[in-house]
């Protein structure tokens, strides 16, 4: 046992040397000092500890967000749906692969998005609120929505009509694909919300956010130039925290680590390029009566960020009310197998009864 071995090292049976009662000379004191030094050298060793295995080692796999193939989930594979429900119930997060958005498509979209990040200083906002690891990281962001007409005019004037058309087409493509993924996931989750969702007075629109992470040292020079940078690129109130969606879909260019704050502690997972990390937001947690756990996530930025910036895309999904009511009504109107069997028995009984009555009447 590790504890017994440790005790045998710490509590040696060899008695310590007797203390010096009276030192009559330097030679006698030196001899006793040598004996004491030899004793300490033999007894004072760092114990050879054999620590027990971590208590959480057997359950570590449960603390890693599950990775689900989107095609299996879309085809309503039972095992995929089970993994999805377990993950959003226990952790509030899962990963999606095989969703059809290629790495080349992401790279091309990010290259176009860089045009927005390079807009002149007076039109740019720099957020310095992120501190990841031991280094400060700044994050630039802008959002893309279907209803941002005023923003579209401003952006078109900044980058030119031709570049804007290319940018708009690629943004819309990513928007449509992520929306299709979110709707497929949402439809499955909404079917397991037992309580009907109250009708909302105002529809919320799904929003696509683009993030650019860079070293804060490079942003300090911009901040010292003036206060014009307090204006946001795309809108006067553009921030992911201002939007209340049901799901957030994060997708990254390149391999990345992802931190998830569950409220009970931090989780982390690795995401390959193109992997979508899906997190439950407050809206869905409220609709599910707390069954699905709301969490927040943030990437762990690579150390090479001072050389090459890191990019991420977040799609904040807000489903239309019609989708919720359709699923709720379908849930309410559905008839269980037991009820169907009971109805069939009643119909068979009534048929037999009326057949018997009819035969009696004909006999008379």
From TrEMBL:
The record lists the membrane-crossing segments as 341-361
- Give a Pfam family name: DIOX_N
- Tell me the segments the record calls region Disordered: 1-24, 217-237
Keywords for this entry?
Answer: Dioxygenase, Iron, Membrane, Metal-binding, Oxidoreductase, Transmembrane, Transmembrane helix
Q: Where is the composition biased (Basic and acidic residues)?
A: 220-230
**Any GO molecular function:** dioxygenase activity
Q: What protein name is recorded for this chain?
A: Non-heme dioxygenase N-terminal domain
Which species is listed as the source?
Macleaya cordata (Five-seeded plume-poppy)
